[in-house]
Amino acid sequence: MKATDRINILLEHFDITPYKFCKDLEFSTGFLRGSRHIGTDKLDKILKYLDKANPLWIISGEGDMIKSSTEVVPSSNSILSSKVDPIIDSQLIPLYEVEAIAGIVPVFQDFNEKEPIDYLSIPHAPKCDGAMYASGDSMYPLIKSGDILE
Fold first, then answer.
1. What pLDDT is stored for residue 54 in this prediction?
2. What pTM was estimated for this model as a whole?
3. What does the alpha-carbon distance between residue 10 and residue 1 come to, in Å, rounded to a whole number?
């Protein structure tokens, strides 16, 4: 069974017509009839649209069709996510108001003197020592000004 066949099963499960699905995601109406492979850009859109669907099941047919409520699945656009650090159920991450210009090293020179401006609560995330806002556009489109970096 192809991934597009499994997507059609999900659409039926969620009572979404193939026409509405393709229109909402700006896919050609023939996408669900013949595609053998789904590119990461399309998969990303599909996973956001069908957010309760199990990505592993869509891709390979393995596991349950619908994610369990406790399952943590990294988004397909988490390019920098790491499998090395253990996941922590709940943590408060200090948010600092700092400016990084031409590298991150100068930010940490007086780091012990900085007080957090707030704390972020991110469940089921790897251990994180702190976060800051990105400024400027030198890393666009990967990082946009105003994004929070952890």
1. 87
2. 0.46
3. 13
The string of pLDDT tens digits covering residues 94-112 is 887 776 554 555 555 555 6
The chain-wide mean pLDDT, for the chain, equals: 75
99: left (phi over 0), alpha (psi -120 to 50) or beta: beta
Smallest CA-to-CA distance from 122 within 77, 80, 83, 74 is with: 74
Q: Is 149 in a helix, a strand, or coil?
A: strand
> Distance from CA of residue 15 to its chain's centroid?
25
Q: Is it the case that residue 5 has pLDDT exceeding 60?
A: yes
Q: At what angle do helices 18-25 and 3-13 cross, to 10 degrees?
A: 110
Count of residues in the chain: 150
- CA nearest 9: which of 50, 42, 69, 40? 50
What does the domain layout of the chain look like in residue ranges?
3-60, 87-149
Going from the C-alpha of 147 to that of each of 103, 104, 120, 141, 150, the distances in angstroms are 16, 15, 13, 11, 10
